[in-house]
Amino acid sequence: MDSLVNELYSLIKQRENAHLEFKEAKNNYDSDKLTQYCCALANEGGGKMLLGITDKIPRSIVGSQACRNLEKTKSDLIIRLHLRIEIEELFVDDKRVIIFTVPSRPIGVPIQYQGIYWMRRGEELVPMIPDMLKRIFNEAEPDFSAQICPLAKVEDLDSESIKVFRELWMRKSGNSSLKSLSDMQLLKDIGAVEDKKVTYAALILFGKPQALKKFLAQAEVVFEYRSSGVTGPAQQRIEYTQGFFSFYDELWNKINLRNDLQHFQDGLFVWDIPTFNEKAIRESVLNAVSHRDYREAGSIWVKQYSRKIIIASPGGFPSGITPSNILWKQQPRNRRIADIFNKCGLVERAGQGADRIFEESIRQGKSLPDFTHTDEHEVVLTLDGQIQDESFLRFLEKIGHERLASFNTEDFIVLDLVHKERPIPSTPTELRFRLNHLVDLGIVERIGKGRGARHILCQQYYTLTGKNGIYTRKRGLDKETNKELLVKHISLNAKHGSKLAELNQVLPFLSQRQVQELLRELRIQKQIHFKGQTKASLWFPGVS
């Protein structure tokens, strides 16, 4: 609850922008106008609309009586816009605030309502201008990798690279009849060749070096090793200007040559964790090859340092993908390449893979994948190989490999957030569902009830790290002891009375709502009473 209130106050301080809208709406708000604003927010990339807040700076919370039936409002918006809009109801000092979280429109698809593609212009809602509509429709770009390379021939493809792919496909599918297919038929079956014409996907994945240099020289992967971040020549540099299947394993082998083991002890056992996780590295390279923009000049770079790897690929994120939604949204730029990877088992599902990178980083107690240096021209992924928290690693070991194998990406993300004492975001909603699942398993503990509840890792984590005292502090004292502390403070300050802010300081591990609930119970039990009706009211011992 505290985190939601803090987020609200943070939003209130911001100026209205393409992703934020405030409306006072004290008594009611027109449903058509609400739909139009949600439509406009979706067309502008998504955002939040808040009712019950003045729209002029400095803003204040006035509360809103609009949209009393939130489920009906949500249902109406889904029917009208075909978008799932999340709605939250928040009470601050008994004033009701309604927060609408609007997702971005689909790639290449503007949203309309009442026959109009809405957008905002200052304080107004207006039809979208033609130039903006054109840009949106142009987002649905054709798949470059599926296009034909006019001058390339089947003879420009490397038979050894095709053989590598064939063996991978047979291993994944278990279909031994693939062995009898001719190279041409196999390439046709996967869409690499169409009517004896070679696609760019075929060149990128199977092309001979001379063909790639002639027709698509930027489709190379450059590997460098540097022992430090100091500028100057790399200790090793290899340029792979050849079909991807001809060097995929070799690239990992080069990285693995300098893949140090990190040791940590758990009782009598010593665990060895490689600095660079093979699954995460391979998946990152696959993502770079299948998502980069081949129309841009420049190569994919794989830069290895002693404790980190940086993978940079030209073209920025595909349209609609951001670091914040990369786990939940897929938009492969080169679908033909992604589909071929999927066929041979290099990726589980076309267009996905970021989930595996995140999972492996969390499993090994390392920092999450970092896209900080990404911009519109280049995706830059940094994978830090240094183990950040050995105690968390021990905790995952105690959970057991069998149980971890049943975890999905959301489970690992929730565990990481709880471990780092960060709030669980409201979207995607799957995170909240998985949080409850981890609580049911006893891996995460919930403290308190309702929106004011907090979450910590289970006691086993603190026992493993010798921090049972911290667990007790985080868990808080039992309810009756908490009430005794409140009564004691109020009694010691009986002369002048105690403010709510002081009582929050007495029990800092509880939310304000939880403290107020304890005060309510003590008042019913006639152990305390208060004077005043606002935040300035004071609490005194006994009955008034």
Q: Taking all residues together, what is the mean pLDDT?
A: 88
**Protein structure class:** alpha+beta
- As a percent range, the share of helical residues equals 25-40%
The biggest sheet amounts to:
5 strands, mixed
Strand content: 15-25%
The total of beta strands comes to 19
Shape: globular
Unreliably modeled segments = none
Assembly status: single chain
Radius of gyration: 29 Å
Keywords:
38% helix, alpha+beta, 21 helices, single chain
Structure explained in plain terms:
This protein is an alpha+beta fold and 544 residues long. It contains 21 helices and 19 strands. The strands form seven sheets. It has a five-stranded mixed β-sheet, covered by helices on one side. Strand 1 (20-23), helix 2 (31-43) and strand 2 (47-51) form a beta-alpha-beta unit. Helix 2 crosses helix 3 and helix 12 packs across helix 15 (409-419).
List the helices and strands and how they pair.
Elements: H1 2-12, E1 20-23, H2 31-43, E2 47-51, H3 70-81, E3 86-92, E4 95-102, E5 118-121, E6 124-127, H4 130-137, H5 159-173, H6 183-189, E7 193-194, E8 197-198, H7 200-206, H8 209-215, E9 221-225, E10 236-240, H9 248-256, E11 261-266, E12 269-274, H10 278-291, E13 300-304, E14 308-314, H11 335-343, H12 354-363, E15 378-384, H13 390-399, H14 401-405, H15 409-419, H16 429-441, E16 444-447, E17 454-457, H17 459-464, H18 468-475, H19 479-492, H20 500-506, H21 512-524, E18 528-531, E19 538-541
Parallel strand pairs: 1-2, 9-13
Antiparallel strand pairs: 2-4, 3-4, 5-6, 7-8, 9-10, 11-12, 13-14, 14-15, 16-17, 18-19
